Recover the amino acids of this structure.
């Protein structure tokens, strides 16, 4: 695995670094709390870009990290002051923060919901005081939005979504529509809370990835063992890792041989054997015996750290889909405010009209222009679509992912656990000098008690045939090679072909049988009695039952499928051939990222990645859309934009069709919302309609777009 380009992006276990750059600048790394979506990261970058002596700034939303380059003589406190002034919290890179309680994490929503609930109770008990209570509740609830809007204005963002909400709420309060004003703020804060919750779930996956490597390691110095923090080991030192533990650094094997579970990096469920001087990566688990290793990687630059950095880089290189309301408000809010101001001052100043009627008209216009129907139109359609998808076993994480689905032209699939079941099964048994059932009985009996995936496959296969197993009299495990023991007074051994004596493997019948089975993508073991071969058992990961149907449905929609796998070329070719799709094999995590980038350059539409392992996480993030399998790793599930909770690949075409239908409904809703608003804006200017029409247009428009959106749940319901 090659080093990542940005080496200074290290694990969160590292302390904050302040290092000189060419003697002129210093690098600073912080943690940011309070970001709800990618647009929050953009706001922070824009604010810091305007700070004097800031030469470079980068915000990694996926891992909540901030990287800033400052003039050597600059005071880092400027960074903290700027970030905190726009409503976010800045922490040192090595800070450990406890999880905030619900009421504190979502304080704005809790405040508004509590105030509105109190107001409703007061209105029911004391009707005469209801309006005043709602006025006070909404006025207090407006303060957080107004404060955030003011801070954003100071940092250069003049017309954000918070400004739109603040103006709309204050206008409604001025006209006496207190309940309307409160609901506008409450619904918006609910959306913000849900968006923030989704962001925190995504970051939880990255944190679990960071925890994949242990914090401590056993170092061997002059034959003595000492437990130390991983940050203090350096390349060239010798460490020891026990069975069941994960390797904390990239290293080379000093022991003679060892067996490792590398699924965290390659996604392949079958453990592999590594010999002396071979390299193993951080995150791999030792299987059978203690191993001594020579450290290769610098602190903060092991395989897991590089995967985290790849995720961060992919987050940045993939342009974030800005919320439509943010884009809309950037020009709509100032335009409406300008028109309202003209309506209020032009007739009294230049036409001799009375002030109060035109002030009333201007505020009515402002209330009509409050885009409640427009704000609701997209979330209503998205919520209906997401609900429909979840009923069918497809979890789509938000509107941006749903929107991107309709643009997918290429689907890249991981092999193991995605196109295949993810665990080996016996596919072939060839008897050479023994009855087939007896051969299976001998092999399964000897493998009893083993946790090796191949052993489990043999035992499971024997159960399917109802074969009664016997207890082996003796067992001897040959690390990384196989197993030897006595079953029914017979000396039986189960070995990988490469460890069978060359004289025995030279037998034509045995050699040809092994080569034939391996050419079909199987893993092979040879069963012997003494030096006599009894038979061969071939095992392979099996294709998912619905994989062929899913690929065919995608082809009919004009969507190309490609398989990206860390498995060997022979196994990959076997699976890809059965599906009639292209493939790339023997890929490490960064190779999969490169493959996704190549597909993005070669195709005009969006590229989606479907995977299930930790090794797939960078590629899932690099693709325009990442889709995880429901029983995949936590990191893959949290990194992805969608997940197949029932693990049915045939739902992929359905998800894409749902996205296309949602886009159509959304366009209809936007047209309805803008059409209603435009109509009543014109009639208000000409004095045809007034305040009541403004309230009815707002409520009616909201109701219409909601009902239209609900059609998605009916029409796209999947049996």
């Amino acid at each position: 695995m090659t080093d990542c380009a940005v080496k200074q992006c290290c694990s969160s276990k590292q302390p904050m670094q302040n290092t000189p750059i060419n003697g002129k600048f210093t690098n600073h790394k912080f943690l940011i709390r309070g970001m709800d979506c990618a647009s929050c990261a953009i706001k922070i970058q824009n604010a810091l870009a305007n700070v004097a002596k800031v030469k470079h700034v980068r915000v990694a939303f996926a891992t909540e990290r901030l990287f800033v380059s400052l003039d050597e003589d600059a005071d880092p406190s400027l960074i903290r002051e700027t970030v905190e002034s726009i409503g976010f919290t800045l922490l040192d890179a090595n800070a450990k923060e406890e999880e905030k309680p619900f009421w504190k994490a979502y304080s704005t929503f809790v405040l508004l919901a509590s105030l509105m609930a109190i107001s409703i109770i007061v209105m029911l008990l004391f009707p005469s005081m209801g309006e005043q209570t709602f006025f006070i509740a909404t006025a207090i609830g407006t303060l957080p939005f107004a404060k955030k809007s003011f801070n954003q204005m100071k940092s250069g963002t003049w017309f954000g979504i918070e400004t739109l909400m603040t103006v709309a709420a204050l206008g409604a309060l001025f006209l006496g529509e207190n309940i309307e004003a409160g609901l506008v703020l409450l619904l918006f804060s609910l959306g913000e809370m849900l968006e923030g919750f989704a962001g925190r779930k995504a970051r939880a996956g990255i944190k679990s990835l960071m925890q994949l490597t242990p914090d401590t390691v056993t170092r061997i110095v002059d034959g003595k063992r000492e437990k130390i923090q991983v940050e203090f080991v350096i390349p060239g030192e010798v460490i020891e890792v026990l069975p069941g533990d994960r390797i904390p650094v990239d290293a080379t094997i000093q022991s003679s041989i060892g067996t490792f579970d590398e699924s965290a990096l390659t996604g392949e469920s079958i453990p592999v054997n590594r010999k002396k001087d071979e390299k193993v990566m951080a995150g791999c688990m030792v299987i059978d015996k203690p191993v001594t290793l020579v450290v290769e990687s610098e602190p903060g630059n092991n395989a897991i750290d590089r995967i985290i950095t790849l995720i961060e880089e992919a987050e940045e290189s993939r342009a974030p889909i800005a919320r439509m309301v943010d884009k809309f408000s950037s020009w709509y809010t100032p335009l409406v405010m300008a028109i309202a101001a003209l309506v209020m001052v032009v007739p009294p100043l230049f036409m001799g009209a009375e002030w109060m009627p035109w002030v009333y008209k201007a505020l009515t216009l402002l209330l009509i222009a409050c885009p409640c129907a427009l704000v609701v139109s997209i979330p209503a359609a998205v919520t209906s679509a997401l609900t429909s998808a979840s009923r069918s076993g497809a979890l789509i994480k938000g509107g941006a992912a749903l929107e991107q689905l309709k643009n997918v032209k290429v689907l890249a699939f991981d092999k193991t656990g995605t196109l295949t079941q993810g665990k080996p099964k016996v596919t072939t048994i060839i008897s050479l000098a023994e009855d087939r059932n007896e051969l299976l009985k001998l092999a399964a009996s000897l493998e009893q008690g083993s946790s090796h995936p191949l052993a489990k496959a043999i035992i499971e296969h024997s159960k399917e045939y109802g074969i009664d197993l016997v207890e082996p009299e003796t067992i001897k495990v040959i690390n990384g090679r196989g197993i030897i023991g006595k079953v029914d007074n017979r000396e039986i051994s189960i070995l990988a072909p490469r460890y069978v004596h060359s004289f025995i493997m030279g037998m034509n019948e045995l050699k040809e049988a092994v080569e034939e089975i391996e050419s079909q993508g199987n893993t092979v073991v040879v069963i012997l009695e003494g030096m006599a071969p009894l038979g061969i058992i071939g095992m392979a990961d099996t294709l998912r039952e619905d994989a062929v149907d899913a690929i065919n449905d995608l082809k009919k929609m004009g969507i190309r499928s490609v398989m990206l796998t860390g498995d060997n070329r022979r196994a990959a070719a076997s699976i890809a051939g059965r599906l009639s799709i292209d493939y790339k094999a023997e890929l490490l995590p960064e190779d999969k990222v490169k493959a996704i980038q190549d597909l993005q350059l070669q195709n005009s539409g969006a590229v989606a990645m479907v995977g299930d392992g930790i090794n797939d996480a960078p590629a899932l993030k690099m693709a325009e859309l990442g889709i995880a399998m429901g029983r995949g790793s936590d990191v893959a599930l949290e990194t992805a934009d969608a997940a197949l909770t029932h693990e049915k690949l045939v739902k992929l075409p359905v998800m894409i069709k749902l996205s296309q239908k949602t886009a159509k409904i959304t366009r209809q809703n936007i047209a309805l919302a803008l059409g209603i608003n435009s109509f009543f804006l014109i009639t208000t200017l000409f004095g045809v309609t007034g305040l009541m029409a403004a309230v009815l247009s707002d409520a009616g428009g909201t109701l219409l777009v909601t009902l239209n959106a609900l059609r998605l749940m009916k029409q796209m319901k999947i049996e």
The CA atoms of residues 218 and 457 lie 34 Å apart.
